[in-house]
User: What shape does this take?
Amino acid sequence: MANSDPIHVGVLFSTSGTTATIERSQAFATFFAIGEINAAGGINGRELVPIYYDPQGIPKQYQAFAERMIRDDCVNVIFGCYMSSTRKAVIPVVEKWRRLLLYPTPYEGFEFSPHVIYTGAAPNQNSAQLADYMTRHYGARIYLIGSDYIYPYESNRIMSDFILEVPGGKKLAERYVPLDASEKDFIGIVKDIKAKAPDFVFSTVVGKATRMLYQAYADIGIDASKTPIASLTTCEAEIAEMGLRIAAGHITSAPYFQSIASEHNQACLARFHQQFGEEIEPNMCWEAAYFQTHLFAEAMREAGDDAYDALLPHLLGREYHALQGKIAINPANHHTRLNPRLGRVNQEGNFDIIAESAPSGVEPDPYLVTHTGEEWNLLQRPPEALYG
Ligand code: ACM
Assistant: This one.
């Protein structure tokens, strides 16, 4: 007789703590996809049941809850993590138990675990394009500011390397603020930015502090249209928290923005809002969390099982028509072929898409082995009118 038991999957995103806003969007994208999968008959007739805990943004709690999900809740697959420090805390657990983590967040690259599928951008899919665009349009004298943990340290190192290759490229400063930074932590920094007058600022500040940086930047009177903050993480979720006056003119590199005009994207956004209201702002991490859950369901439908050894071969190489366009899991490095884009916040608080990759997308190169801008920067330039 066919197995009709429910399939328990782990959902490990924080709905409290400094990254609650963005991680809540990832959790709800996962629940949204699970609802759609169940409404369409589940996986081979079996219902998908999420097991959720709130690790509050604390790496040790991600580790403890991952262990609990696997040991006590009999979960084989976990969808989870935003901050790289939390992913690194979960990896030893999924490796020890031979389970799988699907990770829907842009990160610093230079990592491989056979027990992780990485569905957010690697540096050759966001940083390379951002460095190229910013140095062409604004200049190569850069001021770096980040939160105090691994993703900002490593992303700043990579961005610095890109910038220093450009003629006239110069790093004016590299500063860090605590993850639980307060408004006053940014006062001296924005004064220093104003005094040093970089061509642009590269921010790897995450979580609640993002709003504080952009607010302090506006308050001290730096003109975002002349000296924007460029980021890999500041997205619709943070922009909704900071308000339009503060966000307009700043630039983000990501495979997905709500403003992608396709019918596929706009219809999905409408379904999401109808079900979950307007409180959650879809964004790049929301989209990756959404497509990776559907990707898992398709792979499991084919595999007939979610145990690691049975499922993995059906995930590797799998293609999917995501909201950003076609994506595929690279079998050699477990990262995802994605569709790099650059967005600039307009006066309505939406991202105007100012550049995007060819529809074939960009293969992940998490170790930056193929060190040629040519291959990474296949950006198609939209009409000049969009540039400004
Ligand atoms: C991050 O920590 N990967 C945003």
Q: What stands out?
A: The first strand starts at residue 7 and ends at 12.
